[in-house]
Each structure stands twice: as structure tokens, then as C-alpha cells.
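Can anyone check this?
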Amino acid sequence: NVAYELLMSERADKASELAWELDKNNTDRRELTEQCVDQAILQVERDQMHNPVLFVFDPEWKTGVVGLIASRIKEKYQKPTIAMAMNKETLTGSGRSVTGFNMIASLQEISEYFEKFGGHPMACGFSLIAADQRTNFQQALISQYTKHTEGLDMTPTLDIDAVVDLEEINWELYDLLEKFEPYGQMNNNPIYLARGVKIVNLQPMGKDKTHLRIGVTHTTNVVRKTIGWSLCETNAEGTNWCHILKPGDTIDMLFEVGINEWNGNRELQMLIVDLKKVS
């Protein structure tokens, strides 16, 4: 294990070599994940856009990335998502759900399809009892979704913790939020709403220019940095914010508070969760 060897290395030259190898492995993994996500998006948009549950599969995918694929597809389309890959003679899968649909409870009701499975209401992992049961499993899970969400409004929503001025986002607040970590299932990152935020500048970012850094002002002339992951990708509603926003526009912005660290420097950064153009 490269990471373990790096931690245990007592020689600087060996540690440097292992650190380079570990970084390359991480880069390769990210690139592989991006390729798989692109393939999954094509599968969804080809013939699943109206499905209540999304299923993506490729015999060439590695089992180690199906969880990342499921998470990315669920976030993009806001629908329960199952990603699967071959694992010897059967299929291994990972699922991510949305509020209102208890995924693990649904799997328990169709347990005859699994060699093994586990998880919690918002995520699962499993191995099918046989690869040729994939279609039957998919139909059974869609039936579970239909049964358990009947009469429910499954429109995606976000819970807002507070309406704030951006000038209230400071290190004192960040230090307070750190005391409530770790965030995750049943302890979500706080989401804040700032209304009437003015855009000063925009800068597409990333290898494919799919992310967007936005400089904004609010109740003062101080420009604050925000970043929105994948805002320059066309989402399920057909929106690409890089084609819509321009300096001078006013937006309402939902965001989380984070840190941007580079070269030993740290600065507060607002991570955009959602936004709406006001004018």
C-alpha cells in the first residue's frame, strides 16, 4: 500500500518517490472517475430521463469507483441512483438516494436479488446474486420507489439554516462550525442564504472549465470569493450558469462555508450550493 509505505518511510528520497506515486494514483483515479461519469451521463440522457430511479452500468468500470459515479449522478439529476460494475461472475453496485426514499429499507424488501448488501437510508452497497438478475432487480427497485413515495412530493428541496449578510461570514463563524464536525449523514453542513448579492467578476475553472469562481459584493464594497462546482455544466433543467451570468447581475445564493488552502495560505471561501438570478 503506497500510502502506508509513505507514512512509514524513514528516508526523504524514498518518501518523495512514494508521494509522487500516490499523487499520480490519485490523479489517475480522478481522471478515470470523470470518464466513467461522462459515460453514465450519456446512459441516463439516452433513455432514462423520465425514470424515477437511475441505473448506470458498464462492464469496464472498476468496482472502486461505482460509489463516486452514483454520488455524482444523483447530485446532477436529484434522483436515486444505482451504479454497477462487473465483479468476477456477478455485479457489484453502489446506490445513493434522495430525501423521502429509504434505500436500504427498500433493498431489504427485495433481498432475494442479493448475495450481500448493506447501507443506510441514503446509500447502499450490494452484490447481486447473479449478473443476469440486473434487469429484474432494476424493475423491483423502481416498484419499491413507486410504492414508498406514492402521495409524496419528491421535488428536491434544500433546508436553509440562516439568512445572512456575507459580511457575517468570518473566521469566528468558521471556528464555531468546526466544533460541530464531523458533518455527514444526520449532521449536514449548514447552508446559508444571502439575498441580493451582486456579481463583480466570473472565472471558469478546472481542466474542462466546468467550475465557476464568482467574485461578489453584498452590503459593502468588499469583494468576496465564491466557487460553484460544475456550474458551467448543463444541468438536468438545461441550465449552464456560465452562459447566463455576467458582471453586474444580482443573485440570491445558497452556500456552505469552507476554506481554500494553497502554499500555506488559508482563506474563507463560500461554496455555492444553488443560486437564482434576480436581475
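Reply from J.R.: I decoded it. The domain at 2-149 is CATH 3.10.310.30 (Diaminopimelate Epimerase; Chain A, domain 1).
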